[in-house]
Protein 1
Amino acid sequence: MKLSKSLITLAILAFLANPVPSVSQILPTSRTQLETQLSSLPEVTEVFRLESTEFEEKFRIRVRQLVNHDDIVYGFFEQRVFLMHVGFDRPTVMVTEGYATAYAANPRYREELSRMFNANIVVVEHRYFGESVPSPRRWEFLNTKEAMTDLHKIREMLAPLYPGKWIATGISKGGQTAMAYRTMYPNDVDITVCYVAPLCHGAEDGRHEPFIAGTSGTPESRQKVLDFQKEVLIRRDSLMPLFEKYCDSTALSFARPVGEIFDYCVLEYSFAFWQWGTDPGDIPDLKAADRILFAHLMKVASPDYFVRDTPTMPFFIQAAKELGYYGYDTSPFRFKVTRTRFVPEKIKKGLFGKKKEIKDSLASPAGKWVTKKYPAMELKKAKGYMKELFLPDFYKPRFNRSLYRLQRTFIKQSDARLVFIYGEWDPWTATAVPDPGKPNVLYYVQPGGSHRARIATLPESMRNELQQQINSWLNE
């Protein structure tokens, strides 16, 4: 829906006034009326009907949001929201997505809580992701305070349509978002369900590395993972041509030399392996051919993760600023490997008189083959890698622990109804929200689980207990 300048002005004034119509004014009684009423909301700039095999009605809507909710001078952006309708008398699940929401357009999409409790769904795309990106992108307004206010505005806007119980939920970064939303707006929803949501206290938190070394998997499988990483480094000379060809053929570019990115892939391997629940039986025999080892490394820890300018760059800005992330332990890989390498002769100062002659001599230098011990890794250090690899050169924020403290205190002191679900072997569980041991907090860890832990993956006894308790809360 394209607005004229006069209508835009009226919409802005209506947005600032933020009138909340009564339920009797807005509650539709038919499909046509629902679409009409959504279109009439002053904050909504577009309503587009979508196909669905799961819901009677499904829409993609765009909501006009302030870039800075405290100052209109920075303008507006349009936030993409998906609304899936079951009934006005049913609960509503708000998916507080941490990234883009294109997946929600799939006609078969249905979130598991909505399926379990026959609830409506509102999926909100996170600001600065997908199609919800302000122009220009001012990174100072990509922060939790502004993002949670986005959610609050949408909740207020839809409250007259859906007066029943509300559940906020999200997975991983979306779970972090759900937790922060409940912390900053504790009365907006009745229940919060956080899947595999970390609570980090630093840009490189420090708890993930010892968790991978001593908790993820069994001792035998952890050793198998470590042995594979070491074997890849030992075979650097034969694997690097394959790695470089892979990067060239896929047009990958990095902020650091490709030899260092090779090392980062080796470091990332163990984290990604346990995060996504890879079967230790998939690790190739260490005597397998180079191509077999290389294919497995690329399957688990591909270098495309380390490309800087991607749609996920906003995430790394948030992680560096206030959400936190993980570091790498390089100590197991500080060993030397016997290699034979060509060492060019050093050019003595003054031997050549012109720069071109020096350049030509270096292009095909004289030298000799030398066999000696070389470091297994070219990488000198990994500390600070996130800012160096992922953040734009002009924006390197310092980590602020205030959000971590705010959420930790809220969970300890609040009577809010919260649910936390984690996977036992997922490295992110190293930074899980501590179980406060309170009756209003349901806390479940899937045995042997990964970052894919959900209600559906829990053991039957846990799953039934959790479903019964949520159902009880919804029916109060």
Protein 2
Amino acid sequence: MNRSAPPADPDGRPDVPSDHESPLVSDAADHLYGMPPEEFVPTRDELVAAAREAGDKEAARAIGHLRRPTQAAWLANLLARERAEQLDGVLALADELAGAQRSLDGPALRALSAQRQKLVGAMAREARRLAASDGHRVTESVERDLRGILEAALADPGIADEVRSGRLTRTVSYSGFGPDLGPVDRARPSGARGGTRRPAPRPSSEPDAGTGGGEGAAEREQDRRRRERREQEERARRRAEAEEALAAARRAADEAADRNGADRIALDDAEAARGDAERRVDELAAELDRARDARADASAAVKDATRSERESARAARDAVAALERAEAHLAELQDRPPPR
């Protein structure tokens, strides 16, 4: 089986909320894992801010640690929410597969394997159809990843529970044949692909010609078993290291995606602010042009009024002078004696 452990946050908590989470965190998780991954980060930030405003710092912290799902994990969550009954029917096939593998029933294994492929393919296509109905395009590679998740759920009860929860965050896969039966069942010989190695041959009861007896053969058998055990331990160690490195790489990719989402939001906000500023500049420039036109009109009006005032003042002076002349002339006429 080729799967990674669930990434943990800095406090060591799993990326999917536990059964002991608060109602606020549970509602936030249900809401977040029901939406497409590209909407996850901004919505999570809004929910964190709302929890802080409500004074629930612990809930805000827990919501902030929720991991954004991969595209394939989101599709699995979509199936858990929209097609829960059909999904349970597919996952129920795991018990039949386990029973057939334990009993080494070849015909049953072949029939169940074909049924598994058919059901997994149908569920993957249904998830793709559900996503398309909401306007989300799903690529062939993402659909393949979803098939891998469903195969892993059939092989691992823990992953099956994650898928049923509708809060899966990671893409997992299974490269073996049939369910993961655990160390006891894997120790049994199997003729199927991916089966365990055959039991070691029993040491011969005849004396070994090269050592002079059965004691030397027993020692060689013990040495061989010790070598095999060391090799198995070394393979297990390398496999654990590889899985740990893969989990770390996936966590780093998730964190980078979260940071990229936050940066994209900041960029959108900055571009919106720049657009508002440019529109305000255009408005102010238009107002300035109108003010300049008004000033020019006012200046022209002042010039016209000044010219008119000068002309009216001159006319007034002329009228006063004419009045004075008329009054003087009248006075002269009044002082003269009347003609005889």
